[in-house]
Amino acid sequence: MEQKSPKFEQAFSLHQEGKLTQARDLYKEILTQEPQNHEVWDLLGLVFLQASEYEKSLECIKRAIDIFPDPYYIQNIGKLYFEMKDFENSIAIYEILTRTYPNEYENWFRLAMSYKNNSDWEKAKETYYKAIEVNPRSHESYFNLAYLYFNANDPHTAAKCYEKALEIFPQDWETVYFLGLAYMQCKNYKDGLRCFEERLCRQSAIVSQEKTYPNLMKQKPLWTGKEDLSDKILYTYYEAGFGDVLMFYRFMPELTSRCKKVIFKPQKELVELFRENSYGAEIMEMFDFEDEVYFDYHLPFLSLPYALNKTGADVFIHHDDGYLKPNPDKVKYFKEKYFSNGKFNIGIKWQGNTYYEKERVLKVTDFFRLFELPNTQFFSCQTFEGSEEFGKIKDKYNVIDLAPEFHNFSDTAGVVENLDLIICNDTSLAHLAGAMCKPCWVLLPHVYNWRWHDDVSKCDWYDSLKLFRQPKNGDWDSVFNEVEKELKKLRQLYTISQ
Predict the structure, then answer these.
(1) Which of 20, 131, 235, 367 is the most buried (most CB within 10 A)?
(2) What percentage of the chain carries pLDDT values higher than 90?
(3) Which of 350, 374, 371, 355 is nearest to 445 (CA)?
C-alpha cells in the first residue's frame, strides 16, 4: 500500500527521528480509521520492537502478515523472535525465508546468527558459509565464522577467517584484535603481539593516564621499542586484570636493564609484592601530582613484549627459580600459624573476576571428593567474589579459610610459598604460583583463554603449572576425576618421600 496521507508521513518522520511514543500514537490513530492497513500494523510492531515491548510487537506484525503476507513482514517477525531470544522460532522463520528466497543474503546471515545463539555451532558454520556464497564480501560472516572456530579451540582456522574479514574491511580494529588472539594461541607472537596492540584496554589505559597527567601525556611519546632508553625514564602503567599484569611482570628485569629508570603504576593490591621484587623499578602506590613526576616515554604495561620485540619462544622468558619472591617474614608468619602440621598442604580457589569468561568458574562442590584424602590439609584462598561459596564447605569439612589473611598479593605470596600444591581455576592465583615456581594445577573450561595455546599438554608460560581441561562444555566432573586420580598418585609419592 502506497502511503501518502499527511498523518502517515508525520508518523513515519517521527519514527525515523526516534520519537517512538509520538509515532506510536499516530500509527494507532491511523489504524482506528484504516484497520486493514498492513503497512502501519508492521510499522507499529517495529515501534514496539524498538521499545522492547515484544509481545505487543509480535501481535502487530502478525496482524500485518494476516492481512498481507509480505516477505518483509516475515523478516521482521524473524528479527523480533531473535531479539526475544526465541531462537527456535527465529530459526524456523529464517529457514522458510532462505528456502523461498535463496539469494537474499540477510536471511542466510540471520539464520546463521540464530543457529549460533542457539548453540548449534555446526549448522551455524554451514550457514555462514552459505551466506558468504551469496555475498563473498561479507565481513560480518567471516568475523562470526572466526568466532565460532576460535571458540571451538581451532585458532588456526579462526585466524584464516579473521584474515579474510580484514581483506574486506581492513580498518576494523576489533577484527585485528581477535586475529591477534588467534595468532597468539597458535604461538605466532610476531604477528599476534602486533595485532594485540589494537586491544581496547590499551586505549582505556592511555585515556586514564591522560586524565591523570594531561600535560605530561601530551608532551611525552609512547615508547615503540626503537628508542634508546639508556638515559631515559619510562613510565609504564597497568591495564587489564591482576593475572595479566603478573604474567607480563616477567619482562621487568629486562626492561629495567634497558632504562635509566622505570616508573611502574600497578593495581594497588600488587604494589607491595612488586616493591619486594622491583628489579630497580620505582613502584608507585598512588598517583603523584603531575609537577612531581617526570618521564621521557610512557607505555601501557601489556605492550611490553611488543616493544621489547619478542617474536617467538623468547616471549616466555623462563626464570628457573621464579621472578617473584615472597617476603621471608610473611612466609615465616604463615608457616608458624598454619603450616607446621606435617601434612600435605593444598590451597584451592574456584573463582576469579567473572566480568569476562564466566565459564572459568569452578563448581565448589566438585572439590568435596578431594577433601577426604588422608593426611592432607586444604586451605581456601578464595577472596571477594565467590567467597560466599565457602559456606558450602565449612560445615562439612575441615578446610581452613585464609581469605581474612589476604590484604594484598604480598600476603598471598607468603601463603603460596608454604603450600605444597595449589588447585584453582584460570585466575590470578595461578599466575602468582607460576611466577614463584610453585606447583599449581589449573582447571580450564573446554573453551579456554588464548594464553594456554592450542596444546594444553604443557604450560609454556610457567614450568610449575599443570593444565587440566574440560572434555566438553560444562563437564567439570571429568576434570575432577582426573585431578583426583593425579592427586592420589602425588600423595603416594609424597608419603614415600617422608
Answers:
(1) 131
(2) 84
(3) 350
If 0-12 CB within 10 Å is exposed, 13-18 middle and 19+ buried, where does residue 237 land? Answer: buried
Other Cβ atoms within 10 Å of 336 Cβ, number: 10
Largest alpha-carbon pair distance within the chain? Answer: 93
Q: Indicate whether 490 and 363 sit together in one domain.
A: yes
d(CA 221, CA 213): 13
Let me know if residue 191 belongs to a domain.
no
Measuring CA to CA, which residue among 82, 79, 80, 77 is closest to residue 62? 77
Rg (CA), the chain: 28
Place of cell 562444555: 473
CA dihedral 264, 268, 273, 278 (to 10 degrees): 10
Of the candidates 190, 277, 284, the one whose C-alpha atom is nearest the C-alpha of residue 236 is 284
Backbone angles phi, psi at 371, to 5 degrees: -70, -10
Closest by CA to 352, choosing from 443, 413, 437, 414, is 443
Question: No. of H helices and E strands in the chain?
Answer: 23, 10
Confidence class for position 352, pLDDT limits 50, 70, 90: confident
* Contact status, residue 210 vs residue 203, Cβ threshold 8 Å: no
Residue 1 lies in a domain: no
Calculate the CA dihedral of residues 487, 491, 494, 495 and round it to 10 degrees. -170
CA distance 362 to 345: 20
Q: What pLDDT does 196 receive? A: 97
The whole-number average pLDDT for the span 363-373 is 93
Q: What's the rounded Cα separation, in Å, for the pair 488 and 498?
A: 16
Domain range holding 78?
6-178
Q: Does 167 fall in a domain?
A: yes
Q: What is the DSSP letter of 339?
A: I
CA distances to 124, 159, 459 from 85, rounded to whole Å, are 16, 29, 38
pLDDT tens digits for range 268-289: 999 999 999 999 999 998 888 8
pLDDT in tens, 233-272: 999 999 989 999 999 999 999 999 999 999 999 999 999 9
For 469, the grid coordinates are: 581441561
